[in-house]
Design goal:
Layout: H1 7-20, H2 29-43, H3 48-57, H4 60-69, H5 80-98, E1 104-109, H6 115-128, H7 130-136, E2 137-143, H8 146-154, E3 156-157, H9 167-173, E4 174-177, E5 180-183, H10 185-189, E6 191-195, E7 207-212, H11 221-234, E8 235-243, E9 256-260, E10 265-268, H12 294-301, E11 306-311, E12 316-319, H13 321-327, H14 350-360, E13 364-372, E14 378-389, E15 395-404, H15 406-505, E16 509-514, E17 519-522, H16 524-530, H17 534-537, H18 555-562, E18 570-575, E19 581-592, E20 598-609
Parallel strand pairs: 1-2, 1-7, 2-6, 7-8
Antiparallel strand pairs: 3-5, 4-5, 8-10, 9-10, 11-12, 11-15, 13-14, 14-15, 16-17, 16-20, 18-19, 19-20
Helix pairs in contact: 1-3, 2-4, 6-7
Length: 610
């Protein structure tokens, strides 16, 4: 296979960097080509040019490609002997160096779904205790994959993901819920998850331990050097770097030295923290010793930082292009006394610094010198003044370098502001979590009350069901009684009809009264004789009827019949309904009920014309 880069593939990487801000140009090409090939095969695309067009037409494919490139392989206590060494050796040293009060800062770079930062958190909680861990420890866990970060923030893991966690630690630092394991809240609060691009974003600073396991292996040598330089900057002088088994620092031993090579634990190299050595430069006023320095002078002139040289006589010996632009110097200024130039006292009193460099014979560094350009704008420089010596050790002059750190100062200010805002947000989050826990307890109490109410409602419902069954039984009884009443009504109607038929067939007039002398029956012949219908006299007092005979003469016989006696018939003279004179013979008899008691009287009337 050719080692030459594929122009179409490089063009595809540039497209992603320019349009999506995903910079993969410094990743290892064989790994990238394999991952891109997997997605191309999945979507049915043959070459890199076609895949670029496919990405332009299908924006969602970018996310799938991103997830394919960032394969997250991690786990709790992965490579157990390494973590045993960290717990037994590294953490005790960190605690000893920090003392009993200093804050402990850990950076887990490439944290994936959070298992490794939570592993460190558990080890520190074991070493410090829960209270000290909560007060002193901050673990910054960063990754590029937002999906992995979301999963890490939730801190929810399936049972098979926590199998490598010792049972004691699992019981202390996890809670079981719905078949899943959740990292305990006080441990979660000690870990801060955020997105960080190791190649583009500034590193976390002042940390005691950097954990970056099997992350560097995805990058090329240049990118690895840059990332390791960031790790070196991030670590405290006595900090530790923990890498993965697949990574080594053989080509970067100037920044780190092995602490335990077998377990991939490294410490910063003390030599790498010395000041930057001054650039060796040539001056017109200095003997060239017969060496052709054209290339050296060209490199000096075009160096990215502003530099100038002053010889031992105090004259300007050389000025590179950035220094000329920064301090408005000309080529005619070379050879002039240095103290006549504005740069000798602005942005700082440089002459006294030069004297100090001569007298002490070493490089003098002054950090973050502010230069007010106008009322609203300032620039900051790191200034280094270094003595220059010949090969024989003779002092030839000094070089002054001005490194523009304005952007870094701004980033540092933003970082500090962000840190303060993050701490404020964390405190607010802790307060919110406390309120949520209180609310949760209140909800739990309310839930228990609702469960009690539900049980009472269930009991009431059972009682109602019992009452309903009793009502159904009563209703059935009422229906039975109604059927019986209906039958009796039918029988009564039949009896009444039969009685009416009997009364109608009797040739005499038949009148029936109750115990209060109210008419209860009036035969058809009585209606023919006296001219009153049965419905007109029903319920009327018989003695109040005006039917053509003196009814008051009937009072005593009727009362005698009601008393159970057998009064003699009575004959009364009168007129029928047509006004004919008649003599009416009336006989009386008692009407007994089912129980034998007299409850009425029967009058039988027979009239004859005279």
């Amino acid at each position: 296979m050719s080692s030459e880069p594929d122009p179409a593939f490089e063009d595809l990487l540039e497209f992603l960097r320019e349009t999506r801000s995903f910079d993969y140009t410094e990743y290892k090409r064989p790994t990238l080509v394999r991952r891109f090939g997997q997605r191309m095969q999945a979507v049915g695309v043959g070459d890199f040019s076609d895949y670029r067009r496919y990405l332009e037409a299908e924006p969602r494919e970018v996310a799938e490609l991103f997830n394919t490139i960032l394969i997250n392989v991690t786990g709790f206590f992965r490579d157990a002997p390494t973590w045993e060494f960290v717990a037994a050796d590294v953490i005790p040293q960190i605690l000893e160096q920090a003392g009993e009060e200093r804050e402990l800062r850990i950076w887990s770079a490439g944290c994936s779904s959070g298992e490794e930062p939570f592993t460190v958190a558990m080890l520190l909680a074991e070493a410090l205790g829960a209270d000290a861990f909560r007060e002193r420890v901050k673990i910054y866990a960063t990754d590029l994959d937002e999906d992995a970060l979301r999963q890490a923030r939730s801190a929810v893991y399936a049972p098979n993901r926590v199998e490598d966690v010792h049972e004691d630690l699992r019981e202390r630092y996890f809670q079981s819920q719905d078949g899943q394991f959740i990292v305990r809240s006080d441990i979660r609060r000690g870990v801060i998850f955020g997105r960080n691009d190791l190649l583009q974003d500034p590193p976390i600073s002042h940390v005691d331990l950097v954990v970056s396991r099997n992350t560097l292996m995805y990058f090329g040598p240049v990118a690895q050097s840059r990332i390791l330089a960031n790790f070196h900057f991030a670590l405290n002088p006595n900090g530790f770097l923990l890498l993965g088994k697949a990574e080594a620092l053989a080509s970067h031993n100037g920044l780190f030295r092995p602490y335990d090579l077998k377990r991939r634990v490294f410490v910063p190299s003390a030599e790498a923290r010395s000041d930057r050595p001054p650039r060796r430069m040539a001056f017109p006023a200095i003997d060239k010793l017969g060496i052709d320095t054209t290339l050296e002078e060209a490199a000096f002139l075009q160096a990215p930082m502003a530099e100038l040289g002053v010889d031992t006589a105090g004259r300007v010996a050389f000025v590179n292009q950035p220094a000329r632009a920064l301090f408005a110097l000309q080529s005619t200024d070379i050879g002039r006394p240095f103290h006549e130039l504005e740069v000798s006292y602005r942005p700082l009193e440089l002459r006294s610094v030069i004297e100090q460099a001569y007298s002490e014979g070493r490089t003098i560094s002054i950090k973050e010198v502010e230069w007010a350009i106008d009322n609203d704008t300032s620039r900051f420089f790191d200034v280094q003044v270094a003595p220059l010596h010949s090969q024989g050790g003779e002092v030839l002059g000094v070089s002054a370098s001005f490194i523009d750190v304005t952007h870094a100062r701004g980033l540092q200010n933003e970082l500090e502001l962000g840190r303060r805002q993050l701490e404020t947000a964390y405190e607010e989050l802790q307060s919110t979590v406390g309120e949520l826990e209180t609310t949760n307890e209140e909800l739990q109490s309310a839930n228990e009350e609702l469960e009690t109410t539900n049980e009472e409602l269930q009991s009431t419902n059972e009682e109602l069901e019992t009452i309903n069954e009793e009502l159904q039984s009563t209703n059935e009884e009422l229906e039975t009684m109604n059927d019986e009443l209906r039958e009796r009504t039918d029988e009564a109607l039949s009896s009444n009809a039969h009685l009416a038929g009997i009364l109608a067939s009797i040739p005499q007039c038949v009148v029936v009264v109750d115990s209060k002398l109210r008419v209860t029956a009036w035969s058809r012949n009585a209606a023919e004789l006296w001219g009153l219908r049965a419905d007109e006299v029903a319920g009327e007092h018989i003695l109040d009827l005006e039917i053509g005979i003196p009814m008051h003469s009937l009072r005593d016989p009727i009362r005698s019949a009601l008393a159970g006696d057998s009064p003699e018939p009575v004959t009364l003279s009168g007129h029928d309904r047509r006004g004919n004179a008649v003599e009416c013979s009336i006989s009386f008899s008692s009407l007994a009920g089912h129980d034998g008691a007299v409850n009425g009287a029967v009058l039988v009337m027979q009239a004859q014309r005279v």
